[in-house]
Amino acid sequence: MLRIKRVPTIVSNNQKEEGEESARHGRGCGRNCLNKCCIQGAKFPLYGFKRMNKMINDKDLLSDCNRKPQVAFLDSLLLGEWEDRMQRGLFRYDVTACETKVIPGEYGFIAQLNEGRHLKKRPTEFQVDKVLQPFDGSKFNFMKVGQEEVLFQFEEMDDDEIQFFPNAPIDIENSPSVVAINVSPIEYGHVLLIPRILECLPQRIDHESFLLALHMAAEAGSPYFRLGYNSLGAFATINHLHFQAYYLAVPFPIEKAPTRKLTTFDGGVKISELLNYPVRGLVFEGGNTLQDLSNAVSNSGICLQDNNIPYNVLISDSGKRIFLFPQCYAEKQALGEVSQELLDTQVNPAVWEISGHMVLKRKKDYEEASEENAWKLLAEVSFSEDRFQEVKALILEAIACGNDEKGNVIHSSIEGADGTSQCPKVGAMNKGSNTMLSGKQDCLLLH
Amino acid sequence: MGLGIHRCTEDTRRRTRRRTTKTTMESQLGLIYQSFNARYPTWVRETLDELPNNFTITDPCISGHPIVFASRGFLKMSGYSKDEVIGKNGRIFQGSDTNRRSVMEIREAIREERTIQIKLLNYRKDGTPFWMLFHLSPVFSKEDERVIHFVAVQVPILRKLRRFGAGFGRNGGNSSEDGSRLREVMFGSCRREVCTDSVAEMGCVRVLDAFVEPDNIGSDIEDSCEASDLEKQEAVTAINSILSVMTHYSKLTGRLICGKRCNSSGMGLLGSSLNISLGRIQQSFVLTDPHVPDMPIVYASDAFLRLTGYDRHEVVGYNCGLLNGPDTDAEDIFQIEESVRTEQACTVRILNYRKDKNSFWNLLHLSPVRNASGKVMLLYCLSTYSIII
């Protein structure tokens, strides 16, 4: 049941600055977090989705049409629990009170005036020129959040139908994946999907986690509920593996962009290139199974990670269309190549901004928002044509290699070992370099 | 808050599921049947079936936006039977090679309640894909300007043949050029002789088939064709005939329809998709527009209609005051008016009357609904039937 309410902003105990917290006696550290100190006996709802062995063919829905699942995943569980946390005052500000508009133009960029997020969002705590960095328990990570921020556990079950348990104890041995609120939301229903939270994985894509994200998009089943991923260096702010998701009932500009088909791989995955869009990127669709589609994207992501190329991923159309774009805005910022005008907007172009949902911090920018301005900003984020073609070649080869090992999904959760170890890397990683350029020796900096 | 779902045994689950499935299906089919019968005399279906075109009619107000009518031509084209199609959503005809962006464009057109004409790859029951020109048009109710149906026409697009086989052009490089010129001439003359009858066109193509090798359908299905002007015209003509039939028959029941929104008053406030979402809320409530002088009801839930005994058209467009009666306390009415004026939420227990003049205590909760810039757009009035102990 969807309600619209104005909520006063109350900052919960867990969000106060670190210095203010006093050590409390009693259970655990007193903060009711997810670490060993407090996690024992914690219970959350558990949504068990069923393994999708083949791509859900819309034809199959013919027989399934009238069978309704026990729990409406998106409406009742996710959004319902999100609204509950809103009522409890767990968000730093009321995002539903933020002015939003669709900018007139061909693509319909979406602008939101959100002063609160800028002021109250956690600052980034790690260097922005390395895509792969080890997990650091001392920095902020999701083990430190309060249990009340967790909405439910999200797991695959070997059942032939969806299972739901309103109050399941957390299985510490089999580190579950959870969905939690994003306390600095940019939209209604803004949540975080944290795969295998207790394993403290750093922010890097691996096959299993990406497949989980795709499953979540498919379970939600709404083209307006999208998932996004930011690598380190592409404006991820926390180095603990997570995907973001929220609900916005308008088409995103990037979804409207025309594409040019490049190729179809063995697993039936079709790869296209974005055309007529300020940021160059690839689009992944199709696949004989959800896993085929997932692997194509995760192999690409892993390839980019290993070559120290920052990138973002947008999962849209209920998991049927996935956008991948390498970016170099942080690099340009570091080299002082971004105009002061753009820097003043303080927009950090992460996956949502690149997709066309621009969160603006200054009223001036919001009022003067235009398709032209949005385009100008995003054009700075994009790889140049030449660089992009190189990266594209890199990716296509990585996927082709990855397909040979169809049966073996390598766990990339172990530090140092990853899925591309068996695939010859094109160009060596620039170790010791302070810039994140693609692996070629002659450090191409073409713009 | 919490989701009160308890894990029960496998058996009970199966039994309950079967029972609910049956009831859900029955009530769904009931709604589908009503979709047409409430608006048009029953024999409209026969008349529509006499039209030669391929088309479907869908109802966006029913959950799932199902097909409520499918023409004979459509069923023949798609290979499905009527029972396999009625009640299903149009997406069942899509498949792995259907362009997702096109699907998105159609979805947006539905949400924005406008016409769209777009080429689309669909799949028959036997799994074979085919290109068609998809033309979608909304049907509005004249009285409250809500979208009540969508009409979708599907004109098959003939695939342009790519190359000639052994019969022609052994001259290597030039052959394809000659071939295409020749092909164009043949197609050209075909088109001139044929009017809007797509069957005759198909016949023409078959004649050509004798001279040319069939194309490889497998790869590169993507950009293989564009709709011709003829096909586009056929789509428009079809839509017009269908709408004309429906308009004519709607006059017989007095529930008039039209193909366009007649005037854009505040009635168009609620888009089709919002209507659809609201339809899923199980409670008894209405939404009113505080900006229009008489503060009319712009949406009434099914539960509200059941509670009060009114039909939708007796309530939408009228002020909530229609529920008040001789014994309704003026104080309560005043309290409601004050809250509306000050844009505050309020809860009031007020004596209301059903259509049959029986009174009931209505625990009424009023809330302002604001838009993205904080301006009040609508008022949400939730009714709970309260029993005095």
TrEMBL record, chain A:
One of its GO terms (biological process) is glucose metabolic process. GO terms for cellular component: cytoplasm. The keyword Cytoplasm applies. GO terms for molecular function: GDP-D-glucose phosphorylase activity; guanyl-nucleotide exchange factor activity; hydrolase activity; nucleotide binding. Keywords: Cytoplasm, Guanine-nucleotide releasing factor, Hydrolase, Nucleotide-binding, Nucleotidyltransferase, Transferase. The keyword Cytoplasm applies. Transmembrane segments: none annotated. Residues 253-400 form the GDPGP1-like C-terminal domain. It is found in: Cytoplasm. It holds the Pfam family GDPGP1_N. It comes from the Eukaryota. Residues 74-246 form the GDPGP1-like N-terminal domain. InterPro entries: GDPGP, GDPGP1_C, GDPGP1_N. Belongs to the GDPGP1 family. PANTHER family: GDP-D-GLUCOSE PHOSPHORYLASE 1, GDP-L-GALACTOSE PHOSPHORYLASE 1. This is GDP-L-galactose phosphorylase. It comes from Tetracentron sinense (Spur-leaf).
Automatic annotation (TrEMBL), chain B:
GO terms for cellular component: nucleus. InterPro entries: PAC, PAS, PAS-like_dom_sf. It holds the Pfam family PAS_9. GO terms for biological process: response to blue light. Gene3D superfamilies: PAS domain. SUPFAM superfamilies: PYP-like sensor domain (PAS domain) (SSF55785). GO terms for molecular function: photoreceptor activity. Residues 63-113, 297-317 form the PAS domain. Keywords: Chromophore, Flavoprotein, FMN, Photoreceptor protein, Receptor, Sensory transduction. Residues 1-22 are annotated as: Disordered. This is PAS domain-containing protein.
